[in-house]
Amino acid sequence: MRRYDHRRFDGDVLFFRATVDTIDDALTPDTWTPYVSGRIDNTDVACSHKDMTLPEPIAHIARVVADRLTELEK
User: Fold this and answer.
1) What values do phi and psi take at 47, rounded to 5?
2) Is the pTM of this model over 0.70?
3) Which are the contacts of 60, defined by CB distance < 8 A and separation ≥ 6?
4) Rounded distance, CA 22 to CA 34, Å?
């Protein structure tokens, strides 16, 4: 990520951040600000990064995504 020359994404980002056993606290949702033209909405997920696809965390992520899609359809 640090060496690649990213193009700017034209839109909003729904960012999911693992909050348990974080390796690099410097990598926050704000780290992406230079690469995103819209909002960056953070959702903390109470697990480690490697566990984000386990049933409980992924169910939480799915609810947040479903809620966001419902909002966008209005």
Assistant:
1) -165, 175
2) yes
3) 45
4) 22
